[in-house]
Amino acid sequence: GQGRLWGGRFAGGPAEAMFALSKSTQFDWRLARHDLAGSRAHARALYRAELLTADELKELLNGIDRLDEQVANGEFVPAAGDEDVHGALERGLIELLGPELGGRLRAGRSRNDQIATLIRLWLREELQVIADGVAQVVGALHGQATELLGVPMPGRTHLQHAQPVLVSHHLLAHAWPLLRDLDRIADLLRRLDESPYGSAALAGTSLGLDPQAVAADLGFGTSVANSIDGTAARDLTAEAAFVLAQIGIDLSRVSEEVILWSTYEFGFVTLADEWSTGSSIMPQKKNPDVAELARGKSGRLIGNLTGLLATLKGLPLAYNRDLQEDKEPVFDSVDQLRILLPAVAGLLGTLTFHTERMAELAPQGFSLATDVADWLVRQRVPFARAHEIAGAAVRYCEERGVELQDLTVSDIARISPELGPEVLQVLSVSGSIDARDGRGGTATARVSEQLSEAAERLHEL
Ligand code: ARG
Predict the structure, then answer these.
(1) Which is the CATH superfamily of the domain at 16-107?
(2) Where does the Argininosuccinate lyase C-terminal domain lie (predicted)?
C-alpha cells in the first residue's frame, strides 16, 4: 500500500469509510514531536544493535531533525492519506531520505509501543504545566488567606450557620485538596517514569534492541518490566484523567462558593471587573462566569474519565484498537484545565471580601450555641445535659427574636440555674474562634501556623 504502514498482504486499499474511522491524525498529531524524539532514540538503538551503520545513523538523525523543524514551523503536516502520526512522519522521513534509509527505522518497533510511550512523554510534560496552574490557584487562595487573617465569617454545615470560623481557615480548606492534587501529580509522575519502547507489538523485539537504553535516551528512569503490559495498559492514562477530574471538582467546589458569596443575599465578595462578565440586556449585571465555567467544565472532566474507564473495561490483552480512544478524553481534560486554571487563579486572587458583612453574620443564626454547651462541660455538666440547656437558650432567643450574644444576666438566670453570668464571656465570635486552638482548629494562632504549613507544602510540590 502506497504511503501506508501496512498493505503487503492486501490486494486493495481500505474503503473510504474504513479509512475515515481508522484515521487519527486529527488528534494524535500533537504527539508528532514526541514521536520524532522516540525515533531518534530508536535509531540509536538500531545502531547499537549494528542494524544501522554510523553513516546511516548520522543521516537518519539529520533527517529526523529536519523533519522536526518542518513539523515545528508547520511546513510538514499530515496529508489526507496519512492514517496516524506515526505513518505521517514515516512518510515525511522517506520523502526526505528516500525509501532505502527512511524505510529502515520501523524495524523492531510497533505503533503499539510507540503510542504507549508517546502518551507517557506527553503526560509528563503536560502534568507539569497543570501542576503550575494548580499552584497558581493555591497561591491565590493563600494570598487572600494571608491578607484576611483574623476576619471571622459564619462557618456552615448543611449550608446552615454552624460555628464562626476565620475566612482564612475556610479559604485554606480549599487550598489543601489542591495541594493533595499536586501530590497526586508528583506520585503519578513517578509511575509514568517507565518507557514501553522496545515492547514492540506485544512480545518485545528479536532484533537485540535494548529497551533500557532507549528509556534512558528518552529521559525515563527505566523501561517497563513486561512488554504486554507496556503496550496494553492504560491505567496511567486513566489515573491522569482522574487527577485532572479531581482538580476540576476541587475548582468547582470553591467556584460554587464564589457564586454564592457574590449574590446580593450573601454580599460576601465583589468580583473584579476583569474576571466577570456583563449581561447583553440587563445593564446592572456582573456575572461570575469564570466560576460557572469551572463548575460546568468539571462535569466534562468527569465524563472524560468515565468514558475512558468504560473503554478499558473488559479489554483482553494485548493491544486492541479500542485503545486509540484513550487520547481525546485526556487531551481534552488537559486543554480545558490549561484554560481554566489561570482564570480561576485570577478570579480568586482579585476577589474583594466584605469583611464587615462577614464578621457581622458570623455569630448570627445561634452559631455560638456550641460555646454555651462547651462552657457547661467545663463546669462539669455532662454534655448531653449541656446540649439540652444550650438548646433551651437558643429557643429562648428565637422566641424573643434576639441572638445568643444579646442575652443579659437575667435572661441567663431564667434559662437554666446551671448557667452563670460568666457564660456571657464566651459568647463572642473572637472568644469562640480562639478557643478552638487544637492543631487544625480555627484559632487565629493555629490558622497562622496553617498558613506557614501550606506555604511550605506548596514549596515542596
Ligand atoms: N493510533 C493507534 C493508537 O492510538 C496506534 C496504532 C496502533 N494501531 C494498530 N493497528 N496496531 O492507539
Answers:
(1) Fumarase/aspartase (N-terminal domain) (1.10.275.10)
(2) 366-433
Q: Can you tell me the distance from the alpha carbon of 331 to that of 309, in angstroms, rounded to the nearest whole number?
A: 15
Q: Which CATH superfamily is domain 112-360 in?
A: Fumarase/aspartase (Central domain) (1.20.200.10)
Cβ of 84 closer than 6 Å to ligand 1, yes or no, is: yes
| pLDDT tens digits along 21-70 | 999 999 999 999 999 999 999 999 999 999 999 999 999 999 999 999 99
ipTM: 0.94
The residue whose CB lies within 8 Å of the most ligand 1 atoms, and thus the one to mutate among 10, 83, 84, is 84
Whether 158 is a known active-site residue: answer yes
Helix axes 235-261, 289-312, angle to 10 degrees: 160
pTM, rounded to two decimals: 0.95
Contacts of 271 (CB under 8 A, 6+ apart): 258, 262, 286, 288, 347, 350, 351
Q: Which amino acid is at 115?
A: I
Closest-CA residue, ligand 1 atom 3, reads 324
234 in contact with ligand 1, CB cutoff 6 A: no
Q: Which of 116, 121, 90 is nearest to 104 (CA)?
A: 90
Q: Is 326 in the pocket of ligand 1 (CB under 6 A)?
A: no
